[in-house]
Design brief:
Strand order of the largest sheet: 8-9-3-10-11-7-12
Distance between the termini: 37 Å
Largest sheet: 7 strands, mixed
Oligomer: single chain
């Protein structure tokens, strides 16, 4: 059968009857568990979202891009989570309510033992789920192996332009749906219309033309690396607009899914409470909140969402008021039945001495151990079966499920 068609997926959001996709029988899920992996491609600056506001070292390391300590009088200040950590204010209306309902937990100092600092190599490391250092089997991703472990109960889908590496290797083809890309710069036709409003001469006309030229130059310069790092992932704005569709489809048809969101490679002028990164953070939060709303209370109670990125970013800001490729990150775990409202996993006091190679967050919770522990609890996988999903990785049970 040909790959799943977009129109069929759109109709499927409300359909309850069984269907067949890519040779796989799909019945409407009952009370079965659902898992969504959200991959932030480009290495998001985790400490600008889950902010170590209790650390003086954080403020010494980020003199221009740090977020202000929590203050009820300052709407741009970080929002307190506990005595050490705070949340970016762009997530006040979307993620903070989930924290207060104990439906989201954050795992700081999380990541991989891949120290290449290469977007592509480390993204591959995560999607393959295989030990670092050995030979890689690019025909076997960890979600494909999980799907095989789940057998007939799995209904997988990738919300990506092409089938992602993590789903390669399933003997039954996994459908993929490309999300619409939005948020592109003003096109030539729109530019010409706006320029015509100001004529072809005079200081204002020159300023308008120069503004468009600078905008286009900056976009092309910065977008080149971000597109490469994003590997065709949907923009955060695209995710915000599409997340409700994902929620509806996972409510009614699919229970194992992957989506990637690009645009997180912030080397220059990333901002703090406002600016480029703050806009992306707000879009991500609203997208996740929309997903929760669309999937519905009943399905949300048996759904786990894991938000990951290939690596973190340098703890200290660079000379361009941005951050460079780092190591440790902060992962998110969301769900209606999650034991959230807390920072989970091992932690260490932040200082120059505790940074990895004197520049990054260290990794104290391995991503394979984290996800392995979650799926072991969620799906009741034995140690032997889990070892097939994540070879040579011992699961860490953070008591989140």
């Amino acid at each position: 059968m040909p790959p799943i068609q977009r129109r069929d997926l759109l109709k499927g959001a409300a359909a309850l009857a069984p269907s067949i996709v890519a040779g796989r029988a799909f019945a409407a899920p009952q009370a079965g568990s659902r898992l969504l992996v959200v991959f932030l491609r480009g290495a998001y600056d985790a400490t600008s979202i889950i902010v170590p506001t209790g650390s003086d070292f954080y403020y010494q390391s980020r003199p221009t891009i740090a977020l202000a300590r929590p203050s009820p009088a300052d709407p741009k200040a970080a929002l307190p989570l506990d005595g050490d950590w705070s949340l970016h204010p762009a997530l006040k209306e979307s993620i903070l309510p989930l924290w207060r309902q104990r439906q989201v937990a954050f795992v700081p100092f999380a990541g991989t033992d891949d120290l290449s600092r290469s977007h592509f190599e480390t993204q591959d490391t995560i999607e393959l789920g295989q030990p670092v250092g050995g030979s890689r089997n690019y025909g076997s991703g960890f979600l494909a192996r999980l799907a095989q472990m789940l057998g007939r109960s799995d209904r997988p889908i990738a919300f990506t332009d092409q089938l992602p590496l993590c789903f390669r290797g399933d003997p039954v083809p996994v459908p993929n749906l490309a999300l619409a890309n939005v948020g592109k710069p003003i096109d030539r036709r729109q530019t010409a219309i706006i320029e015509s409003m100001y004529g072809t001469s005079g200081q204002l006309a020159q300023s308008v033309a120069q503004g468009f030229h600078v905008r286009e130059t900056v976009y092309e310069t910065l977008d080149e690396e971000m597109k490469a790092a994003g590997r065709g992932a949907v923009s955060s704005k695209g995710f915000e607009l599409s997340a409700r569709r994902i929620g509806a489809l996972m409510r009614d048809r699919f229970n194992l899914a992957f989506v990637d969101v690009g645009g997180w490679d912030t080397h220059v002028n990333q901002g703090n409470a406002t600016g480029y990164l703050a806009d992306r953070i707000g879009e991500l939060g609203r997208g996740l909140a929309g997903f929760v709303d669309a999937i519905g209370a009943r399905a949300w109670g048996s759904t786990t969402v894991v938000v990951v990125s290939e690596f973190g970013r340098t703890f200290r800001e660079n000379g361009d008021k941005g951050t460079d490729h780092g190591h440790g990150s902060v992962y998110w775990v969301l769900g209606g039945d999650i034991a959230g409202g807390r920072m989970a996993g091992a932690q260490v006091a932040l200082s120059a001495a505790t940074l990895n190679q004197s520049r990054d967050l260290p990794v104290l919770t391995d991503y394979r151990a984290l996800i392995g522990g979650l799926v072991a609890r969620q799906y009741g996988l034995s140690a032997d079966r889990l070892a097939t999903v994540f070879p040579q990785a011992r699961p860490t049970d953070l008591k989140l499920i």
